[in-house]
Amino acid sequence: MGKEQILIRISGEDRIGLTASIMAILAKYDAQILDLGQADIHSTLTLGILIRIDEAHSGQVMKELLFKITELGSISIGFSPVSDEDYEAWAGRQGRNRYILTIIGRSLSAEQIHAATEVISRHGLNIDAIKRLTGRMSIMHPERNVRACVEFSLRGFLSADDKKAMQQDLMVMGEETGIDFSFQKDDMYRRMRRLICFDMDSTLIQAECIDELARRHGVYDKVAAITERAMRGEIDFKESFTERVALLKGLDISVMQDIAERLPITEGTDRLMKVLKTCGYKIAILSGGFTFFGEYLQRRYGIDYVYANELEVGEDGRLTGRYVGEIVDGRRKADLLKLIAQTEKVNLAQTIAVGDGANDLPMLGEAGLGIAFHAKPRVKQSARQSISTIGLDGVLYFIGFKDSQLGEEGKLC
Ligand SMILES: [Mg+2]
Predict the structure, then answer these.
(1) Is residue 31 pLDDT above 90, yes or no?
(2) Helix count and strand count (H, E) for the chain
(3) CA 358 to ligand 1 centroid distance, Å
(4) Are 43 and 15 in contact (CB under 8 A)?
(5) CA–CA gap between residue 250 and residue 408 (Å, rounded)
(6) d(CA 131, CA 41)
(7) pLDDT tens track for 122-171
(8) pLDDT band at 409 (very low <50, low <70, confident <90, very high)
(9) Is it the case that residue 259 has pLDDT exceeding 50?
(10) Cα of 339 vs its chain's centroid, Å
(11) Does domain 3-92 have CATH number 3.30.70.260?
(12) Cα of 202 from ligand 1 centre, angstroms
């Protein structure tokens, strides 16, 4: 007896037991399920089932399904035959060419989603699924809608050059429309990240510690002038660092404690840390700033590794104007990321790096997922993904978490 494929499309008001009653009929006639998918938007369901069934039964199955749907009301059903050739061609297209595009903003407009989907279609990718990762919006309390995130699951072939071009187009789109995005290969590493390395100053905290120390010591202008010269490329990082640290000579370390306790923590950090710790992530701070503040954050969040610059303290409890050990600069941050990954037996593809400065670029480049955070345009352009519209917890959406899984305060439920 011959077999045939039928695509069943059901849409209408969602209710408990609907899929079960459809499946009961299909089971009675021993239908094979070749594909199955469902989307639920505002309590309205769209369900698709591709079945393979004995030709002799197909008429009866469709009749019984139609009868059931009529009995339930507020639901419609449609059937389309699918030829063996069409089915095989479709099945043959499955494979590894899958990508995830995540877009984030304070809110997302049709214009912004149009811009993103336009880039997707221009590069010949098909949208397989669209998912909202942020919670449901309130129209009565718009102040509660602090962020919006949508994830597109995409399919299609991109060569390395195509991928670069798409990345570039997304970058322009993000800049023009004011949204953040990440474009990632949908491989097993995406949901299996294990290590995250953060820059500290202007990433985990909204301050540059050396400026705070300089202010309290009355040498801010001198320190700023050296920073300026370093930015202009007149002196290298090591030289400028040594000069700036020398200016802090005599500062009482109780001042550092005072600054640490008042550090302005970046929006979304508490939520992000709570989730990462719960999920067993290894967390590192790799900072060109100072260990004193890194260790303060380490105690606060249970961070696993801190590598930063250690200021030498004299017996009188004051800074000597010197530092101890090797300076952590951009190259060293990247090396440390690789070293910690090795120690933790984590594949580099499973690492995440987040930072705002030019000295974070090497580690953003090494990590499986490198995220420029509220960074200057030059850093943003060199990174593969960035967050500029919302807080640090935006990282959670790039790794696929949904608000409904996290709870508002990042409490896993
Ligand atoms: Mg920084």
Answers:
(1) yes
(2) 16, 15
(3) 8
(4) no
(5) 45
(6) 10
(7) 999 999 999 999 988 888 888 887 899 999 999 998 999 999 999 999 99
(8) low
(9) yes
(10) 23
(11) yes
(12) 5
Region 272-288: mean pLDDT is 96
Q: How far apart are CA 74 and CA 83, in angstroms?
A: 30
Q: How many Å lie between the centroid of ligand 1 and the Cα of residue 208?
A: 7
DSSP string of 206-271?
SS-HHHHHHHHHT-HHHHHHHHHHHHTTSS-HHHHHHHHHHTTTT-BHHHHHHHHHT--BPTTHHH
CATH topology assigned to domain 98-186: Alpha-Beta Plaits (3.30.70)
Structure tokens at 262: 């008042």
For 195-208+264-406, which CATH class? alpha beta
Catalytic residues: 199, 201
CA of 173 to the centre of ligand 1 (A): 25
Quote the percentage of the chain above a pLDDT of 70: 98
Mean pLDDT for 180-206 is: 94
Residue 286 contacts residue 197 (beta carbons within 8 Å):
yes
**Non-local CB neighbours of 191 within 8 Å, separated by 6+ positions:** 399, 400
pLDDT of res. 413:
41
Torsion angles phi and psi, residue 150, rounded to 5:
-130, 140
pTM of the predicted model as reported, rounded to 2 decimal places? 0.88
Spacing, Cα 199 to ligand 1 middle (Å): 6
Residue at token pair 């399904």: 65
Is there a common fold for 98-186 and 195-208+264-406?
no
Other C-beta atoms closer than 10 Å to the C-beta of 50 total 19
Spell out which residues have Cβ within 5 A of ligand 1, the ion.
199, 201-202, 356-357
**Burial (Cβ within 10 Å: 0-12, 13-18, ≥19) of residue 87:** middle
Question: What's the CA-to-centroid distance between 160 and ligand 1, angstroms?
Answer: 30
CB atoms within 10 A of CB 152: 21
What's the rounded mean pLDDT across residues 18-41? 94
- Please tell me the distance between residue 52's alpha carbon and the centre of ligand 1 in angstroms: 57
**Domain residue spans of the chain:** 3-92, 98-186, 195-208+264-406
Quick: pLDDT tens for 236-251.
888 999 999 999 999 9
255 C-alpha to ligand 1 centroid (Å): 21
